[in-house]
User: Which sequence fits this backbone?
């Protein structure tokens, strides 16, 4: 399997990226990740870590063009230009001239206007790809039907307990790349790593349970953004390209699906109501 996927606008994006939400030491961890071969860094205005990540990227000495940097604009926009300002602010904090991808973080508030700000930045070359997050297929189809550019990526919670087969089919139909956030269930699914099937497959392939979970997504053509504070696990989470799960094991892993998201449930009104109350 190639380590990069070609997006619908021809841009290449690494299949594995570093998740950075609430990292203990964003600066140190991003530098280590780059040394270990990570080339995609996933952040957001809302993570409040862009300056630290920018310093870590500088520390690493990597050439800008060798990295794929994603950030996201938050739903505190209310008028044209607000999302543009947020994205430009991210550039400044990260210390870069352009973003490889800028995403609409949640389909809330006037995200159509925000999306058009991103289209403008895309035309100007300030962002190389436009992404959305937490878009259910119905919202995605609406958005891409009434705008000049369709998004390249939809980032949505996906893991062995929340496999999103139906959604994936729809994203695929519109050639929008599916990127999984919380690919390990955000560390919030207590019994996930104790699952006997994962133990059995880990033993069979000589890999860890987490690697089985991550490889399962890669083989479904889903990109992943695991996050860890540990150096050992940083290595583990990108060491996924030297084995292949057999078809029968892919089938068996399907049985772990409970269709349960732990963080992002854009289809759940109660969750959306709470997100608006807490984060607006
Ligand atoms: N667009 C959105 O709305 C959205 C929402 C949520 C997240 N995201 C993005 O997606 C990224 C990943 O999602 P996430 O941070 O929610 O969680 P995640 O990557 O699914 O899980 C992180 C948890 O798994 C543990 N872990 C990591 N590697 C492991 C391994 N090899 N073995 C066992 N446990 C392991 C980590 O603990 P240790 O640190 O102790 O290793 C941590 O508790 C985020 O950081 C962020 O960049 C986007």
Assistant:
């Amino acid at each position: 399997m190639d380590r990069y996927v070609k997006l619908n606008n021809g841009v290449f994006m690494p299949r594995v990226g570093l998740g950075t939400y609430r990292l203990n030491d964003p600066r140190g961890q991003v530098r280590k990740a780059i040394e270990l071969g990570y080339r995609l860094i996933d952040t957001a205005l809302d993570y409040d870590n862009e300056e630290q990540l920018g310093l870590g990227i500088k520390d690493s000495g990597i050439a800008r063009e060798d990295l794929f940097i994603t950030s996201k604009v938050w739903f505190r926009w209310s008028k044209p230009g607000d999302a543009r300002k947020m994205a430009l602010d991210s550039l400044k904090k990260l210390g870069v001239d352009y973003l490889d991808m800028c995403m609409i973080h949640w389909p809330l508030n006037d995200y159509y206007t925000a999306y058009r700000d991103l289209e403008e930045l895309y035309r100007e070359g300030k962002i190389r790809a436009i992404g959305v997050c937490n878009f259910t297929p119905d919202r995605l189809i609406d958005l891409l039907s009434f705008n000049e550019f369709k998004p390249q990526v939809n980032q949505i919670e996906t893991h062995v307990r929340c496999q999103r087969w139906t959604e994936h089919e729809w994203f695929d139909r519109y050639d929008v790349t599916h990127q999984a956030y919380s690919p390990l269930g955000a560390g919030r699914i207590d019994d996930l790593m104790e699952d006997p099937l994962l133990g059995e497959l880990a033993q069979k392939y000589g890999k860890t349970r987490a690697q089985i979970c991550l490889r399962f997504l890669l083989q479904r053509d889903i990109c992943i953004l695991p996050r860890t504070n540990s150096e050992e696990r940083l290595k583990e989470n990108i060491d996924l390209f030297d084995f292949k799960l057999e078809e029968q094991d892919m089938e068996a892993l399907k049985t772990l699906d409970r269709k349960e998201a732990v963080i992002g449930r854009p289809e759940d009104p109660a969750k959306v109501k709470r997100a608006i109350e807490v984060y607006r």
